[in-house]
Each structure stands twice: as C-alpha cells, then as structure tokens.
Amino acid sequence: MSTSALPTTLYPASHFVESAGCIIFHLASAQICLIRHLERDHWLLPKGRRNLHESRPTASLREVQEETGYACRLLPITMRTRCPPAVGLGADDPNYPDLPRDEREITEPFMLMVRDTTTATCTKDDVFGDAKSVKLIWWYVATYEGNIEHGPENRAPKAEEWGEVAWFGYQAAIEKLSFETDREVTRSAIDIVKLTYPAGDPEKEVL
Predict the structure, then answer these.
(1) Would you tell me how many other CB atoms lie within 10 Å of the CB of residue 119?
(2) In a 3-state reduction of DSSP, which class is residue 34?
(3) Above 60 in pLDDT, residue 124?
C-alpha cells in the first residue's frame, strides 16, 4: 500500500476547531486595538471560534465586534502567499507553481497559528482517543476608521463584558501583549501594513 512521501497527520472533526481573529489597525493614528482579560490580567488579540456554515472572514469580523464593540472591515494588503490566483487569472492552470509570490490588495489570512489542545479537549473514551487535538487560528488584518478618542461609535449592544478595550501605538502594543505568539503575529501584521500603506504610517507614533 502506498503512503504519502510527506509527513501527514489526520484530525477527525471531533479533534480540531477553527478560530479566526484580527489585528485591528487605526491607520490615521497608527494604533492597534487590544483587549485585557480582566480576571486573568492578560492583554490579548480579539479572536474566537468559527460557527457552523460561517466563512472564516465573516467569523473574524464577527468575533472582533463581539469582543471589542468595533465594527471593522478587512484591510486589503500586499503580502506573499502560496494561494493560486483567482479563477481566470491562472488558477485554472493545473501546473501553476506552488511557490510564494507577492499579491496586492488581498484580504486573505496572513498567518495561521496551530495550537496543540490535546490535554485540554481530547477524551480517551472514543475511537480516536490516541489522536491529538488542535485549534487552528486564522489571523486577518482589519481596520477601524471611526473615532477612537471618545470610545467606539459603533459599540455592539452585547460587547464582551470580560474585557477592557484599549488602543496602543505599534511598539507599545507589541510590548503590552501578554504572549510571545501574539507579539509575533502583531509584528508580522505591522510589517505588512507598513509595506502596503507607507503613507499611512505617521512618523509620530502614539506610544
């Protein structure tokens, strides 16, 4: 029996969950939105689980609004990706190379985080008891274009009450985040936004 030449891991649906989140930019002031979990005193990026029949981009924006109260939109960015071009622009070529290339004005996820949740979620009493469990977290770049000086203009009626929302300059946001993986994701998002919108990167960063 033939096997794949590449290392392969199978996860039944009971052993993985998808989440989606955004790094929210306010380009006019060069700030990023973070959430503080009040009970744990952790500064975090907004994200949450994707619902059944929900697309990843929709889930990311819904979770952002639920957790922060801000109604955002995905920000078109320039980044390197291995996704084939859109249909009609090369995707119909079966031999299109699977290589990274620069794409402009796209709203695809710029980062995938894979978290091992085996000890947190797996049960040992089903047929997949020895399988690992993972959480796949898709990260997008989003923007809020309203007034942030006096609180959100589009505050969601049922914004999460467990958190405190605040805006920080780029470097301050990196330093404020509680977890290194979140800091790494944020650094990558900042680099992408600065590359895509050089004119929207003010010299005077709010710290």
Answers:
(1) 8
(2) strand
(3) no
Q: How far is CA 91 from CA 72, 94, 97, 189, in A?
A: 30, 7, 10, 26
How much is the pTM? 0.86
40-97 pLDDT, tens digit each: 999 999 999 999 999 999 999 999 999 999 999 999 999 999 988 876 665 567 778 8
How much is the CA Rg of the chain, to the nearest whole Å? 19
Closest CA to 26 of 202, 203, 162: 202
- Asked if residue 176 lies in contact with residue 32, where contact means CB atoms within 8 angstroms, the answer is no
Cβ atoms < 10 Å from Cβ of 48: 17
Query: How many whole angstroms separate alpha carbon 204 and alpha carbon 207?
Result: 9
Quick count: other Cβ atoms within 10 Å of Cβ 59?
21
